[in-house]
Structures are given as C-alpha cells and as structure tokens.
C-alpha cells in the first residue's frame, strides 16, 4: 500500500512536471517573438551623432532599406548632403538641392537620421498659427519637457518655407555651421502636407538637435525640406512620447577620426 502511494506520488509529480514544462515551452517562444520584434514602440532611433554631422561626417553607411526597419517616420539627410530626408508612413523621400522630390533606392546611403514607429498617444488642434506659436502651444500641452517625443503635424499651409542642402564632394571643407546659413530655400503658398518632427530635451547636448526639429512633405509629394517658417489656419498635431533611445554610429574612418570642434544648434524656438 505504502509502495503504491509512493508510486502514485512519483507519477503525479512527473505528470505535474510534464505539464509545467509543456506550459513553459509553449509560453516562452511567444515571449521571445515579442521581444525580438524590430518594431520597437516608444524608441527614438538615431544614426550618427549631430555633433559628428556638424563636423563634416558627411558620408554614412546606413542604407535606406535598413532605415525602414527602424521606424515609419523620420527626418535627416542623405550621404554627401545629397538631399534632405523625410520619412512618412514608411516611405523615405528625398528633397534635392534644386527642390525636386523623389524616393531613393533601397541601397542608397544616409548620413544622419532620427526615426521612430509612430503610435500617437495624444493630439490637439490649433487655429491660425505659425512656427513660433505652434511651439508655445506644444510646450504647454506636453506632460514634460524631460522626455523625447515624435510628432506628425498635418495642415493646409497658406505659406511654407523649407531649407535644403547643397550636395558636397570630398574633401569636405565646410561644416554644417557654415553650410546651413547658406542653404537653398524653397517656398510655396497654399500647400497641404505633413510635418514630421522630433523633440529632444536640452540634456541631449550636441548628440542631437536640442528642442524641436521638423521636416515637411506635401501631400502631392512634390515639395518639402527642413521646416523654417510657415503660416496656417488649422493644424492637427499628434505626438508620441519616446522613453528609449537607440544609437547606431557610422562605421567609417571619417567618424572614427572626427574632431568634434565645432558646435551648431538651430536657433531655439
Ligand atoms: Zn532638418
């Protein structure tokens, strides 16, 4: 009888152990699939550091194909400053120095970019506004200026002024501190489109653009660039707080040897 009881106990233990093991095996693969999902929400992805970009690291090794795995919105620049980059709904656009917009091939290279998968957490509307008043309103709406944010701002703009970049060839002589004040400028009236943007707190220093940075692409995909000024009657602002930050540094001699002498930040809004 005692023997039988012991055998039953051992049998019950083995059955329980088997069931638990089976459950763990069933549950773990799902967890692993979840954690290896490249579409990381709430993550600010950055390629290159702003400081390197300012100091003439103008060639990058991030491909357009790779960028598409890092987010569905983004802004930045292509290698050799061959155009401003704005990514919207997973499509990276390029605005060249003459203002012409196209979609680059997957193997083309990027020198600097911010990107994220956009999952808006909140939104608000704004009437009759310009760049300065938009920033005042955003500052009053955000729960804190000590975290990162991504933005999609849609509107019908009565005026939009965007900046581009002149393509550079080696040896690169001028840093962004000299090139940006002399950048090509594109203007349009009565244009519908979307501004894609990012906010970095002041503590980011020279690693990225401190404050707000927006790039624009028109709905008809014929006009865009780095947002400098605008006027509009109504804006739809959506934003998403980003609590994680992911860097990729350029794997190039230019980056390894760059001397981070010059500093440049856009004028604070
Ligand atoms: Zn820009």
Automatic annotation (TrEMBL):
Source domain of life: Bacteria
Entry annotated with the keyword Lyase: yes
Catalysed reaction, written as an equation: (2S)-2-acetolactate + H(+) = (R)-acetoin + CO2
Protein's UniProt keywords contain Ribonucleoprotein: no
EC number: 4.1.1.5
Pathway assignment: Polyol metabolism; (R,R)-butane-2,3-diol biosynthesis; (R,R)-butane-2,3-diol from pyruvate: step 2/3
GO biological process, one term: acetoin biosynthetic process
A Pfam family this chain is assigned to: AAL_decarboxy
Keywords assigned: Acetoin biosynthesis, Decarboxylase, Lyase
GO MF term set: acetolactate decarboxylase activity
Record family assignment: Belongs to the alpha-acetolactate decarboxylase family.
Protein name: Alpha-acetolactate decarboxylase
Phylogenetic placement of the source organism: Bacteria, Pseudomonadati, Bacteroidota, Flavobacteriia, Flavobacteriales
Gene (name only): budA
């Amino acid at each position: 009888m005692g023997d039988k009881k012991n055998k039953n106990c051992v049998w019950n233990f083995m059955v329980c152990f088997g069931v638990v093991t089976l459950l763990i095996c069933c549950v773990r693969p799902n967890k692993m699939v979840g954690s290896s999902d490249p579409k990381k929400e709430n993550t600010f992805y950055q390629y290159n550091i702003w400081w390197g970009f300012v100091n003439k690291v103008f060639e990058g090794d991030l491909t357009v194909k790779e960028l598409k795995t890092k987010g569905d919105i983004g802004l930045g620049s292509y290698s050799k400053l061959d155009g401003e980059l704005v990514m919207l709904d997973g499509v990276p656009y390029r605005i060249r120095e003459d203002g012409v917009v196209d979609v680059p091939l997957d193997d083309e290279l990027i020198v600097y970019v911010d990107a994220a998968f956009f999952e808006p957490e909140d939104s608000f509307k704004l009437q009759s506004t310009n760049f300065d008043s938009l920033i005042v309103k955003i500052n009053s709406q955000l729960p804190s200026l000590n975290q990162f944010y991504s933005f999609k701002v849609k509107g019908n703009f009565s005026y939009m002024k965007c900046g581009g970049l002149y393509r550079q060839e080696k040896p690169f002589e001028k840093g962004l501190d000299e090139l940006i004040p002399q950048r090509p400028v594109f203007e349009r009236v009565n244009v519908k489109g979307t501004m894609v943007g990012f906010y970095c707190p002041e503590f980011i220093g020279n690693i990225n653009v401190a404050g707000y940075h927006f790039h624009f692409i028109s709905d008809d995909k014929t006009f865009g660039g780095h947002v400098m000024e605008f006027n509009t009657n109504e804006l739809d602002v959506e934003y998403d707080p980003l609590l994680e930050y992911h860097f990729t540094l350029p794997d190039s001699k230019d980056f390894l040897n760059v001397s981070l002498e010059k500093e440049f930040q856009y004028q604070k809004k």
